[in-house]
Amino acid sequence: MRLGLKLFLGFFLIVGIAAFFVMRIFVNEVKPGVRQAMESTLVDAANVLAEMAAADVKAGTIRNGTFVANLARAQRRDPKAMVWRFPKRTLDYQVTITDAKGIVIYDSTGKGIGRDNSRWNDVYRTLRGEYGARSSPEVPGDDTHSVMHVAAPIHDPADARRLIGVLSLAQPNRSIDPFIAASQRAIMKRGAWLIGLSALIGLLMTGWLMHGVNRLNRYAKAVSAGEPVPPPKPRRDEIGDLGQALETMRRKLEGKAYVEQYVQSLTHEMKSPLAAIRGAAELLQEPLPDADRVHFARSIQGQEQRLTETIDKLLALAEVEQHGWLQKREPIDLGVLLRSAADAVALRAQGAEVQLQVEVPDGLVIQGDGYLLRQAVNNLLENALAFSGAASSVQLSAARDGDGVVLRVADRGSGVPDYALERVFERFYSLARPATGLRSSGLGLSFVQEVARLHGGRTQLRNREGGGAIASLWLPWRGPAAPIRR
């Protein structure tokens, strides 16, 4: 099971269980809570009615006295009330009055007169000076509906200490059932909203956490695969700290491996020039004709230049390769960039008697690092000039190509042998120059390839019909959306 799903299910389970128990408690508490409120109201009403009935009970006229007449008129009233969206058109009170022995002397329903209620809890406890109340089935033997009875003592109006009867006030519980059901539905509805909202919050929180975790996961996989990737974006939490720790570790490990690799490469490339310098130096220590002495001195100077060029280009390539992503991005007018690159090699082209042509339409603008692109084009031009013969030409051009632009450097030189076409972009791989037979550092085209990678582009070198070669550098309009694989 995925970590994100585990987090979400765990969060939802905790919230769901908590919400379930809270709602269950609320739902279970609604019915007793409403009935307690009803009982409190019955207590008040019973005591008021007991005080009003006291005179008739003492006089023995309770069945046809003022109290009963007033009560009968009240029960015939239509309240026309709307309580919590529920209409109320009748009074639900039932009044029963017993004498001091618990014998019913008045019943508002007219059914219980003469019945002995002294053993019923409401009357029994009230006759003993306690609070009396009970709940009995509305229909004997049927527990579906019940009636709540609350009793109040009837005292002698002339002597408040003398008990002369008990008034029981009853109300069917079914009269409040709609309110209980409505409250329970409201709690369940709000509880469902609570669970849904909690699930949404859990989903968002899980998504936010997993977004950071997945970015770290992709970053770690890319690093382990050797892909150049930017460091994770800073975050002010443990995930951000972990990302920075991973980036620091990556830099240290890559830096160590990178230094070891370049030391080995540089050592390998320096052996041949150093051997030639050492041999020429040993020969110069012997008596030699002036012509040979000049020849060996020039050999030492040439090897020194080769070493310097190798070190300079190796440092430039190392700087580019160390960047897993483009550090600088700005609008670049390709017309200005290509003419600037052509001007930089104009004197060399003139000395080699090579005509340099620049063809670029107006309005070609891309996003990238102008310095790196200029250096890349310069390397392509220098490579083309080195393989071009006298009285030939080199064309530098740019054109739209799909969702990007392509820069081309075409020459009419000796071309590239078939066996070398697949290796020309390898580091330190170089072909002998036709004019001198010497080889370069073999780092120029590697530099161009790295610059293309940083911009999300690609490079190609192929032979040209009629002789010569064409080196192309394709670049997208806006650069890579994600780091490009090496």
UniProtKB/TrEMBL annotation:
Residues 207-258 form the HAMP domain. SUPFAM superfamilies: ATPase domain of HSP90 chaperone/DNA topoisomerase II/histidine kinase, Homodimeric domain of signal transducing histidine kinase, Sensory domain-like. It comes from Stenotrophomonas nematodicola. The chain crosses the membrane at residues 6-27, 192-210. The lineage of its organism: Bacteria, Pseudomonadati, Pseudomonadota, Gammaproteobacteria, Lysobacterales. PROSITE patterns: HAMP, HIS_KIN. Its main location: membrane. Keywords: Cell membrane, Kinase, Membrane, Phosphoprotein, Transferase, Transmembrane, Transmembrane helix, Two-component regulatory system. It holds the Pfam family HisKA. Residues 265-479 form the Histidine kinase domain. GO terms for molecular function: protein histidine kinase activity. NCBIfam families: PRK11100.1. This is histidine kinase. Its EC number is 2.7.13.3. It is found in: Cell membrane. It is a multi-pass membrane protein.
